[in-house]
Amino acid sequence: MPRSSWKGYLKLSLVSVPVRGYSANVAAGEVRLHQLHTECHSRIRYQKTCPIHGEVPKDEIVSGYEYAKGEYVVIEPEEVARLRGERERAVTIEAVVSQHTIDPVYFTDKTYYLAPDGAVGQKPFALLQKCLADAELQAVGRVVLFGREELVLVRPVEHVLAMTALKYETEVSHANTLDEELEKTPLSRDELTLTKRVLEAFEKPKFSMAAYKDHYVEELTKLIEAKVEGKELVSPPTAEIPRVINLMDALKTSATAAKGNGSSGATRGKKLKKVASGSHNARGGKSRRKKSA
Fold first, then answer.
1. Is 135 within the bounds of a domain?
2. pTM higher than the cut 0.70
3. 105, 194: one domain
4. What is the CATH number of the domain that holds 18?
5. How far is it, in rounded angstroms, from Cα 141 to Cα 121?
6. Which of 6, 103, 116, 242 has the most other CB atoms within 10 Å of its CB?
7. Quick one: 19 and 105 in the same domain?
8. Are 81 and 69 a contacting pair, CB within 8 Å?
9. Within 10 Å of residue 269's Cβ, how many Cβ atoms?
10. What are phi and psi of 89, to 5 degrees?
């Protein structure tokens, strides 16, 4: 049974649902490397020091804001706690939106599963979760998590709710900032058809993230184990990246190589025919539709 890391309320208008939050992140497979002194391999230590008094213990450190050069105003923990008030225990829903409304670029790596806290929260939680799931909706709200106010996205996942902290608009750089790097490039029907054929060959209807492992962690673990045993790993030579000489030749070769990936011929054929026809018309080809009288 996982242990909850947060406890509070999910508030929708006048409805408050008691919930518990469980971290969705697991620190499995992580390899931590420490900084060492190259001469004696002693662990590097970091000390908090004052230019006047030298090393300072933790209980003598406070938070402050520099409002002018070298001038600070001290902010006490009790003052910050009063500002948070009840917000630290409440996820207040401010908007309900359709799925896929929010671009994943706004997502952070902080996600928590929400479950009802106690018997009194079971029914209202189930009602809220089911209504969001049935209508394919998500909720945007605010909550103070571990000392910081977060904008969060609450969405139905299986039989619970997932709450992901979001970035604010000022924390996101949008893709249109790269518009000047792009040129208007004409695309032929054959190029589009071949490219889509390669992509469709890699489609996986039964996709699972469980099939993917962190190869870097595995390789680093092997390296560490070998060094502990006094061995040296011999790495294979780095494969040279082939240069693309001709785009169409490369696409044809890729399409041929991708045939063995289990693509469905009939379905793919219909898709490709539709794509090719649409691309031809879009490029000025004759339409086969009959003109209406």
1. yes
2. no
3. no
4. 2.40.290.10
5. 19
6. 116
7. yes
8. no
9. 12
10. -115, 5
Whether 191 and 149 map to the same domain: the answer is no
CA of residue 65 relative to chain centroid, distance: 32
The DSSP letter of residue 86 is G
Residues 257, 259: Cα–Cα separation, whole Å: 6
* pLDDT tens, residue by residue, 92-137: 999 999 999 999 999 999 999 999 999 999 999 999 999 999 999 9
> How big is the chain, counted in residues?
293
In 3-state terms, what secondary structure has residue 151? strand
Tell me, yes or no, whether 128 and 95 share the same domain.
yes
Other C-beta atoms closer than 10 Å to the C-beta of 26 total: 8
Q: 195 and 271 in contact (C-beta within 8 Å)?
A: no
**Cα 12 to Cα 14: distance, rounded to the nearest angstrom:** 6
Residue 93, classed as helix, strand or coil, is strand
Please give the average pLDDT of every successive group of 10 residues along the chain, which has 293 residues: 85 92 80 85 87 89 89 82 65 94 94 94 95 96 86 96 95 91 90 89 86 81 81 62 68 73 48 44 41 40
DSSP codes joined into one string, 184-253 = -----HHHHHHHHHHHHHT--TT--GGG---HHHHHHHHHHHHHHTT--PPPPPPPPPPP-S-HHHHHHH
Give the tokens for residue 43. Answer: 């662990």
Rg (CA), the chain: 28
Q: Are residues 111 and 134 in the same domain?
A: yes
- Which pairing describes strands 6-12 and 90-98: parallel, antiparallel, or unpaired? parallel
Number of domains in the chain: 2
How many other C-beta atoms lie within 10 A of the C-beta of residue 142?
A: 16
Q: How many CB atoms lie within 10 A of CB 208?
A: 7
Domain of 275 in residue numbering reads as: 186-204+245-282
Cα 91 from Cα 6, distance rounded (Å)? 11
* CA atoms in the 13 A half-sphere facing the CB of 275: 18
Give me the amino acid identity at 281: N
